[in-house]
Known about the structure:
This protein is an alpha/beta fold and 241 residues long. Helices cover 39% and strands 16% of the residues.
Amino acid sequence: xxxxxxxxxxxxxxxxxxxxxxxxxxxxxxxxxxxxxxxxxxxxxxxxxxxxxxxxxxxxxxxxxxxxxxxxxxxxxxxxxxxxxxxxxxxxxxxxxxxxxxxxxxxxxxxxxxxxxxxxxxxxxxxxxxxxxxxxxxxxxxxxxxxxxxxxxxxxxxxxxxxxxxxxxxxxxxxxxxxxxxxxxxxxxxxxxxxxxxxxxxxxxxxxxxxxxxxxxxxxxxxxxxxxxxxxxxxxxxxxx
Length: 241
């Protein structure tokens, strides 16, 4: 004779199990929601010592919400070979975007700290971009050498691009640990077109951008990028993802 097994489920057990499962899902959801928010709070606290600035209204789309994090506007700049480079090319990396210019004295005093910090921290996860509000690579190369290797005699007033490049290669045979792109000004302005589109009227200014392309902190005027607080700020954004 065929035997049949009968399984009887108690409705109370089913309801209790469902409730436990639901609570588990809610807790997991809250955990996943809290982790990035906690990381963002930690990054904000870590960067507070660098005295970050409020968002420039030019970065806030249509006058909407103007609080960090804000999506960094994409742009196209050019390397020394004339190759176009987009900020969005660096998605997946944390970026410190430094707006500067060869004619900016404050930028000159900031550049050595930026150079040393980049040498310490640049990796597959982090890049430093120096966007120069200049019309020629000649001026940019001369300014970098002048800032980083001041003992090297600068080329004369009639310096050519070849002169500047030769001086750069001799002074900095291994190059620099940050990437430099050109942002030529439009018209009679001395501020690069990209910098101007970000609402910048004076340099230096810097934006710390996370892997998703969001500006997490913004700094008007120079900072000591080699200081422990700067390293803590940058690492907090690198480590949160």
